[in-house]
Write a structure and sequence with these properties.
about 220 residues, alpha+beta, 60s Ribosomal Protein L30, Chain: A, four-stranded mixed β-sheet
């Protein structure tokens, strides 16, 4: 009986030892798996950090290029503004010189109060044509390179855009008549519309508006 008990005790101790060894092995295996996962995650994190650094570097380079482009665009805009200012200044000086060189020989005004342009119309009446015939005769009698400026005006009734267009149509009618009927070269005739600007009479009366509906022809040399 004692032998049996002793044998059982030895067997139990052996079983416990075997179980303990198995548990340690399992733990070692699990620890190894965890270490592998940790190492994998660490490598992935390092790779992600490296990609982030590279992306940040590329973003920084892109921002520098954008800043350089902005600086170039600003410099180009400044140069264009300077060029426009210089061109405007030159044009103003040229206009001033041209005005100083040319002088008005005489001028003729065609207005409704003299039986010419009617309200809202740009058609040349016969009275206007007769006066233009006189102007053309004087130009042909003194062909010394005279230059003609034709200015179109209106009264204040209507919008600014409408009056500007109407004034231009009246001036163009005069230019067309001088060219087609008297062969005055087109390069010697310039037209401009002032619309309702620069009235010569009050626009609050019928007679005043009739005077303001006019075309002024200036002969310069």
């Amino acid at each position: 009986m004692r032998k049996f008990v002793l044998a059982m005790s030895v067997a139990s101790i052996a079983a416990l030892g075997s179980t303990a060894c198995a548990t340690k092995g399992f733990v070692r295996d699990r620890v190894g798996e965890v270490n592998d996962k940790v190492e994998t995650v660490s490598r992935s994190l390092e790779e992600t950090q490296e990609r982030t650094r590279k992306n940040e570097a590329r973003i920084g380079e892109a921002e520098q290029k954008i800043q350089q482009v902005d600086q170039r665009a600003a410099a180009a805009n400044a140069a264009a503004t300077e060029a426009r200012t210089a061109a405007d200044t030159a044009a103003t000086k040229a206009e001033a010189v041209e005005k100083a060189v040319k002088r008005i020989v005489y001028e003729v005004t065609l207005s409704e109060d003299q039986g010419n342009f009617k309200f809202g119309q740009a058609t040349l009446p016969e009275e206007a044509k007769a006066r233009l015939d006189e102007v053309a005769s004087q130009l042909k009698a003194n062909p010394n390179g005279a230059y003609i400026e034709v200015e179109g005006y209106t009264d204040s009734i209507g919008s600014k855009e409408y009056n500007h267009q109407l004034g231009l149509q009246r001036a163009e009618s005069v230019k067309r008549y001088l060219y087609t009927q008297h062969q005055i070269p087109l390069h010697r005739i310039s037209v401009i519309s002032y619309g309702s600007e620069n009235p010569i009479a009050p626009n609050n009366t019928r007679a005043g508006r009739a005077k303001n509906r006019r075309v002024v022809i200036k002969v310069l040399v």
